């Protein structure tokens, strides 16, 4: 049993809204309330916390106190660079003043991260990219992205930074769209304190193989954080882990073992119509169950099958362990 | 030149929000202000208007006056059956009280439609469907959908109703997902005042061929309204018409001629980061331009090519007219 | 335990080729050899057999003998209406002579079906459709498809016919693309001996929900046959059942119970690089394992959750049974 | 006018087969006949030629003669590493003997390339990858791919090599799946004579933006060749250029100008049911027409719009030039 620590993006305990239910799926939830809600899950040890905080006049001090009270720590600070002000982009905004504000907010996020003893500052540049053909000069977008993140990263070499990529949404096409592209952009930054948040759902949605890509990023020393969820592979549905792709969820858990992942596993879910606490519990218990299955799996046999790239034998071994049945499939 | 009348869903002139820019992409816009904004487009003759109206205490009287003042008429009334209250479904909500409220709101919409002299009441049941495997009893969903819409439709045989289908969003899977499914459900309703809103974007996103499906629906006498926009075919991006799929936009315009469409063409766009008025103008002028191209196209030659199902000759004819160049492609 | 009978499309035991490995993935396999190979699976009781038969001069008599010898029966006859001769369409070919030949081949297939005592003649019109925008007159395609299948069906009211729909391949867009469209086209045929082959993979690839659609088709009395496989949802990969979408495979098995499916379950797989016999065994044993899981599932609790459309509770019940673990997820 | 030279993959003039029309879409065509067919297009100046050659006993000498006779030159040699023998992989085959043969065939291809004075040897490792979850050890796949291509490249530092990536087909998941991944793998090779073939269709199918990615690859000095075609974005349909995505085709042409592309533009098409010569002519004349449109486009205005990332203004400029109409869209 790998004995992972669990965490979550704090947003999963807050208010959800979308373009249709504009009156939101529930009442507003302040950062402080969300921490307390997270604590009720029972497994959550750390949170990725958005800054600015939600709620009238909530201070860093109050957040710190609530964290201490609940026994939860700040794992990451994620600045809100995708609100109205940044609707045309954060690092890649056509307006230099907004690009400047993005960098300033990034620096403030570093400060908050230090105050809350967070492990990294996360950038999720959901508004960076484009919507229409011919809308942008792609080379300029690349330069803005690279130089913007670099500038923030260079202000504090003691802080770790991480980019969370996604193919789309809210932009029709996001700039940081895949693991490989993000690795190339990080290379171009020429700094060594910027890495990647590997979100299993973003990965499968980007037509990647999550279990493959998490190893690729780790091999290059750029894996800062792991977030999990599931989706129907056409959109970032942010469902409970393993709810659609159970076998691949198991394969992802095995990949975490292969890279000897020691960090926490963070949930990134949007349970619009569900109870957030139960949604968190279900994902975490599924992760534990899948990890337990790995304990029972004949890994030597699996490895032998993989050495032969024998799809059927690998499937048989996996299904047998997953379903707890003996499959004959005797003929070869 | 087909001389179409143009209209729009009123929402394209209102406030946009999504799950990330929760502070919205702009300020709130009341129904009255939105009508005035629509009038500034210059081409808009009618609107699909949501009910309840947006804005503190806006009355039917006020809406009527603003319409008269601007010379715009109400084409449709679309009740808000996808707000917080209906987050777990409208016609298919598990709670009979919410299903009841949906039907009552539908009846109120009929009343509003009569008062504003609108041509039809539109149902867009975006919250009807499911998110997860195993979440629902599909047969029950079908029964709820069919009986719910039927009940509203039966209360007023003088009113026309129309269902707008979409594959997904906000639900991961919407119940009314394709033209053919919706036609089957309408059959099951056993009433003759329920039809379909064919949204070209929803159609191409549903892996349909919009130019084909609009003819299929028309042939069955169920085409109530036509809405247009474009997208990247993976999501309902609600972009300007023809911005991604220009050739298919032209083909759709030809299909409208084939069915001799006399109704207005309504825009269904969400210009999150763009000026709504310009976005409307661009779509409408593109439609006019494409329709003008049809005037210049050698339709007899195209028909002959289609009789032979000759893809290259059809492409050649279309590209020649679209691009205004002579293409040789002499060898056959 | 539902005690299903198992069958397969005979092609899964024959030679595979594609546009790259034009020298094929293995040697040619005659119809007679394929039957014998199918027998070696151990579970196969019936086959969907292509006509014309594969192999130099293979006769109906020989096929009949081989079937008797192996204890396998012919479940369906599927005429080859997608070979070179039909590359531009079978029922919808622009050339009336080819449309005629399609109908004649359909009639011959009836004759073969009678001789082999097959339950139905299957049409898989993979070449009917189009590749390019503007290539065809869609209304004409509809008429050709409807009248063509009708004509064959009318020649023998004692024979059952079934259409297998798929979104694409080999055509970029196939005419019979979804269950609902096919149901509408069958309505237009006005005959009652034409139904549908529900292929779970084609269904999930067409953005349908297989467990939903199989019930829809059954409710309308048009479910003639059930074929199973799995894919990555972007293409008809024809993989072993449950290999990618295990939870939905289980949901599909439950749907078969709901409609009280008594017919056989046929495999439709293309194990290009795998052993066909083992691929068949693995799918069938997976089906049996999933069916066994249904026996252990708390269906009353699941139904109660579905009555509330409670996604998380349904997931919890399903995962608990599937993985054989207790999931707490205590908070509601 | 950019005055591009045109070429093609020779396969577009040969025989097509797929898994359904196993008797092929037409008769076999030898390499020599295919060259002559290519010459009949009228625009084709160079070819990407597969090795081993098609046709009984065709020699390098004969190919050279036919090239001279037709005035066509060999642009690239593409070894057949995706036939039956390589069905389980070429560079990544589990069997070291097959990996060895792949490398040997690569070396032979170098020799042929020298004899025919070709510019590069192309690797299209369509069988390298996997089909099922859990089938392979991904790290091993990466190592095999990197070390295999490196080994061939190191045998001849005077020869240029190029990898053509694609997301899938024939493998359900190909190893070299995107531009960015391929760039990373090339980095790992540590040689400087391996680059990329940017196929516009593979790029749009891989959820990339072709106009963006061609610049990204060029900026890194790895753009060896440009191939074009179009598809429906779910599969490698290999249709004529611009037939589905006309606006993006124009954007791609502009990107070629931006990088000052001096090499030829090669067609990569599979006109299964169409005349190959006409299919080539149509694509080339479309390219020329689009390039001519760029001459007439107000690039300064477009650049100004792109500086503001103004989607609507950019669209307006593009549509005006493309359609040859004046669009007002006056309000801003």
What are its keywords?
homotetramer; 332 residues; alpha/beta; TIM Barrel; two-stranded antiparallel ribbon; 11 helices; 10 strands
Topology diagram in text:
Four copies of one chain form a homotetramer.
Chain A: E1 6-9, H1 31-41, E2 44-51, H2 60-70, E3 73-79, H3 96-115, E4 120-123, E5 129-130, H4 138-154, E6 160-164, E7 173-174, H5 179-189, E8 194-199, H6 200-205, H7 210-219, E9 223-228, H8 246-258, E10 265-267, H9 276-296, H10 299-307, H11 311-323
Helix pairs in contact in A: 1-2, 1-9, 3-4, 4-5, 7-8, 8-9, 10-11
Question: Your description of this structure?
Answer:
- Four copies of one chain form a homotetramer.
- Chain A starts with 5 loop residues before the first strand and ends in a 9-residue tail after the last helix.
- The first copy, chain A, has 332 residues and is α/β, with parallel strands linked by helices.
- Chain A has helices at residues 31-41, 60-70, 96-115, 138-154, 179-189, 200-205, 210-219, 246-258, 276-296, 299-307, 311-323; strands spanning 6-9, 44-51, 73-79, 120-123, 129-130, 160-164, 173-174, 194-199, 223-228, 265-267.
- Chain A folds into two domains: 6-296, Divalent-metal-dependent TIM barrel enzymes (TIM Barrel, Alpha-Beta Barrel), CATH 3.20.20.150; 298-332, no CATH class.
- Chain A has eleven helices and ten strands.
- Chain A is globular, with a radius of gyration of 20 Å.
- In chain A, the strands form two sheets. In chain A, strands 1-2-3-4-6-8-9-10 form an eight-stranded parallel barrel, surrounded by six helices.
- Helices cover 43% and strands 14% of the residues of chain A.
- Chain C binds chain D through residues 15-26, 82-84, 86-88, 126-127, 131-133, 168-170, 172-173, 232, 234-235, 237, 239-240, 243-244, 270, 272-273, and chain D through 15-26, 82-84, 86-88, 126-127, 131-133, 168-170, 172-173, 232, 234-235, 237, 239-240, 243-244, 270, 272-273.
């Amino acid at each position: 049993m790998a004995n992972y620590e669990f965490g979550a993006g704090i947003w999963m305990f807050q208010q959800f809204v979308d373009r249709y239910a504009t009156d939101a799926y529930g009442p507003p939830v302040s950062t402080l309330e969300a921490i307390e809600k997270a604590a009720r899950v029972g497994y959550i040890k750390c949170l990725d916390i958005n800054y600015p905080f939600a709620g009238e006049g909530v201070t860093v001090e109050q957040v710190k106190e609530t964290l201490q009270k609940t026994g939860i720590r700040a794992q990451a600070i994620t600045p809100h660079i995708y609100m109205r002000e940044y609707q045309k982009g954060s690092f890649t905004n056509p307006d230099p003043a907004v690009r400047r504000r993005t960098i300033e907010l990034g620096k403030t996020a570093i400060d908050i991260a230090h105050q809350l003893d967070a492990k990294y500052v996360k950038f999720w540049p959901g508004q960076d990219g484009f919507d229409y053909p011919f809308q942008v000069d792609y080379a300029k977008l690349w330069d803005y992205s690279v130089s913007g993140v670099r500038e923030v990263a260079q202000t504090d070499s003691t802080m770790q930074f991480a980019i969370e990529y996604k193919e789309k949404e809210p932009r029709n096409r996001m700039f940081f769209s895949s693991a490989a592209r993000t690795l190339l952009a990080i290379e171009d930054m020429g700094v060594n304190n910027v890495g990647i948040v590997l979100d299993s759902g973003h990965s499968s949605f980007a037509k990647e193989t999550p279990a493959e890509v998490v190893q690729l990023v780790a091999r290059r020393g750029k894996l800062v954080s792991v977030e999990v969820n599931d989706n129907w592979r056409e959109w970032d549905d942010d469902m409970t882990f393993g709810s659609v792709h159970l076998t691949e969820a198991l394969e992802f858990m095995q990949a975490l073992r292969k890279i000897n992942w020691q960090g926490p596993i963070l949930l990134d879910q949007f349970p619009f119509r569900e109870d957030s606490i139960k949604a968190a519990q279900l994902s975490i218990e599924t992760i534990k169950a899948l990890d337990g299955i790995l304990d029972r799996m004949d890994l030597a046999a699996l490895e032998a099958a993989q050495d032969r790239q024998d799809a059927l034998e690998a499937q048989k071994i996996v299904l047998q362990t997953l379903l707890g049945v003996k499959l004959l499939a005797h003929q070869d």
